[in-house]
Amino acid sequence: MSNNIVRYNNGLNGVALRKFSSVDMNLFWAICSKMKRKQTNKEVFTFSEIKEISKYKARGIELFANDVIEMADKLGSLAFYFEDEHVWERLNLFQRFLVDKENETLTVQVNEQFEFILNSIGSNFTRFELENMTKLSSSYSKELYRQLMQHRDRNTKKGAWFVKADDFRELLAIPDSYRMTDIDRQIFKVAEKEFTKTDDSGNQIFSSFRVEKVKARSRNKISSFKIYFAEPETFKVPLHNWLEDN
């Protein structure tokens, strides 16, 4: 298993990565893994290191650069918010995002007002292995995976996410046209297959994955989901790695 860790404040889980493709998500989370605990320092990464950890397959500098730029454009259109009892502000996660095709580098700097997302995390954080994210093919599976990891118990390596159906649609950016049968077929069944698949090294992301649908009392309509998951017993991460990540 790779040592590339994504770790961020749970507030980021409330932001749906709308219109993000599977490649977009791999690139975004790879960059987040490189930017953790960098405060607001300006960091420079080579194309090759981002390609490697994001498992980017396509060849060619121009294509890679364009994919990063496309992801950054989508990221810039998302609604990141800072709010307390006095003020409300819309912010960009990164205050600088420079793609240098000639030198094949990417320069990134976290927005000062938003640096707590990747730095000042405390105990309110989501953490996952970047390698698991890049193994998943479906963008819905990727989004579901990071949401589930917020609800993972560090001791039992199991978890459960109880979520209203409407909130689930919002967080995974599911089109209004999707019926429950579509969600079953294109999200839950695909996710179960990807999560529990055994790779060439004999590893699984989850040893079990189960979705329980809860109906509204007054109607025969699904009102919420109870999603249960567990990591394989053979997958052990020492507790200190979750609190003082590598």
Explained architecture:
The protein is α+β, with helices and mostly antiparallel strands and 246 residues long. The protein has 2 domains: 113 residues, Winged helix-like DNA-binding domain superfamily/Winged helix DNA-binding domain (Arc Repressor Mutant, subunit A, Orthogonal Bundle); 105 residues, Winged helix-like DNA-binding domain superfamily/Winged helix DNA-binding domain (Arc Repressor Mutant, subunit A), CATH 1.10.10. 34% of the residues lie in helices and 24% in strands. The strands form 4 sheets. The protein has a 3-stranded antiparallel sheet. The protein has a 3-stranded antiparallel sheet with strand order 8-10-9. It has a two-stranded antiparallel ribbon with strand order 1-7. Helix 1 crosses helix 2 and helix 1 packs across helix 3. The chain is globular. It starts with a strand and ends with a helix. The C terminus is likely disordered.
